[in-house]
Amino acid sequence: MLEHLKTQPADKILMLMQSYREDPRTTKIDLGVGVYKDPTGLTPVMRAVKAAEKKIWESQDSKSYVGLAGDPAYLDAMVGLVLNKTVAREQVAAVATPGGTGAIRQALELIKLAAPEATVWLSAPTWPNHPSIIKYLGMKMTEYRYFDEATRGVDFDGMLADLQGLKSGDVVLLHGCCHNPTGANLTAAQWQEVIALLKAKGAVPLVDIAYQGFGDGLEADAAATRAVVAGMDECLIAASCSKNFGIYRERTGILMAVARDTAEAKLAQANLAFLNRQNYSFPPDHGARIVSTILNDAVLRADWEAELEEIRNTMLGLRKQLADELRRLSNSDRFDFVASHRGMFSRIGTTPEKVEQMRVDNGIYMVSDSRMNIAGLNNQTVPILAKAIIDAGI
C-alpha cells in the first residue's frame, strides 16, 4: 500500500526554517516563521499564562475528557472576547479546535456538509493553508483581488469588482484583522461596503481572526468581525489563541457559527459536535483552560492585556523604525506603507529572485513572496534589513 503514496509538496516556511538553522552566519535574521519574538529572539511565555498554569496545576483534580465541543467556560469566554455581545449568545454555536488551523478545517467541513456546491472565495494573496485545505477537501475555490503590488495597500476597487461574481450561497473568506501575508487592512468604511455586497449577493462570510490584539488593540481588532456579525444573517468565525496568548504549541482555537435564530444555532451546534467527533473526538483542553482561566480572572486578564499591549507596541515601534530607516536610505517615501500595515507581517513587494539575493548576500530569511515577520526584528537588526532591501534594488 505505502508504495502507492505520492510525494507531497514541501512546506515553504518549514523549508525556510531548516535553511535558517543550517546557516552558520551569526548575523542571519529569521523573518519567516510566524511567531512573536522579543528583542532577545525568545518567544516568551506570557506572565498571565504562567500564573494561570500554576492556578490550574494547584486546583485541577482530573484529566478526564471534556465534552465534544470543549469546555463551556472557554467557549463562552472566547465568544465574549471576539464578539462582546454583538449578538445573543444563544445564536452562536461554538466548538473548541486544535488551533486556528483546526477551526478553519472544521469551518470548511461544515460548509461541505451544508452547501457542497458552494465556491469559497479567497483573497489574493492569502495564508497558504487556506487554499491547501480547500483543495484537499475537493471544494470549489476562486480568488478575489486584494493586494496592490504597486501601493502595497488594498486593491479595494478590484476586490469589489471581483466579488460582483458571487453567487448566492458562496462563501467569502475574510481576514478579521492583520491580514496575512500582506499586513494591509480594509478601513471601517470599506468593511461596510463589503458587508453590504455580501448581503446583497446572499453570500456567507467566513472570518479568520488569528491576530486579535496584535494590530490596533483587542477591541479595535475585533471591530470588523463584529460589524460582519451585526450586518449579516449568518457567518462563520475561526479564531486562534496562538498569537495573542502566546500558546502556539498548545493548539488552541475556536470555530463559531452565528445563526439567524436559536433553532438554527442548535442545529449548527449538533453538526459541529459531529464534525469534532469524526476528526479528533474531544478537543485539546490545556490551552483552552489557560485562556478561560485568564479571561475569567480580573487580575490575570488585566496583566494579560497589559503584556499584549507591550507586544503590540513593540511591533508598531519596529514598523516605524524600519519605515524611517528605509526613508532615510532611499530618500523617498515609497516604504512608508510598512508603518501603516498592522500585525506581524508585511509584504514588501518584490520578486523571489531579490528575496533569494538578500538571503545569499545578507542572511535574511523571508518567504519568497516577500512576506516578512516584523516580530522577527529588533532595534539592532532593523538597519541591517533596511540596507539589504536598498542594496537589492527593491
Topology:
Elements: H1 12-22, E1 29-30, H2 47-59, H3 72-83, E2 92-98, H4 99-114, E3 119-124, H5 129-136, E4 140-145, E5 147-148, E6 153-154, H6 156-163, E7 171-175, H7 188-201, E8 204-209, H8 218-231, E9 235-240, E10 252-258, H9 262-279, H10 286-295, H11 298-330, H12 337-340, E11 345-347, H13 352-362, E12 364-365, E13 371-373, H14 382-391
Parallel strand pairs: 1-12, 3-4, 3-7, 7-8, 8-9
Antiparallel strand pairs: 2-10, 5-6, 9-10, 11-13
Helix pairs in contact: 2-10, 2-11, 3-10, 4-5, 7-8, 11-14
Characterise this structure.
- The structure is a single chain.
- This protein is an alpha/beta fold.
- It has two domains: 10-44 and 310-391, Aspartate Aminotransferase, domain 1 (Alpha-Beta Complex), CATH 3.90.1150.10; 65-296, Type I PLP-dependent aspartate aminotransferase-like (Major domain) (Aspartate Aminotransferase, domain 2, 3-Layer(aba) Sandwich), CATH 3.40.640.10.
- The chain is built from 14 helices and 13 strands.
- A hairpin with a 4-residue loop joins β5 and β6 (153-154).
- α2 packs across α10 (286-295), α7 packs parallel to α8 (218-231) and α11 packs parallel to α14 (382-391).
Assigned CATH architecture of the largest domain: 3-Layer(aba) Sandwich
Q: How many DSSP-defined strands?
A: 13
Percentage of residues assigned to helices: 40-55%
Q: Structural class of the helix and strand makeup?
A: alpha/beta
Task: Look at the structure and name the CATH superfamily of the largest domain.
Answer: Type I PLP-dependent aspartate aminotransferase-like (Major domain)
The number of helical segments is: 14
List unreliable stretches of 5+ residues.
none
Domain count, please report it.
2
Shape: globular
State mean pLDDT (0 to 100 scale): 96
Question: Class of the largest domain in CATH?
Answer: Alpha Beta
Strand line-up across the major sheet? 2-10-9-8-7-3-4
Gap between N and C termini:
49 Å
Biggest sheet record? 7 strands, mixed
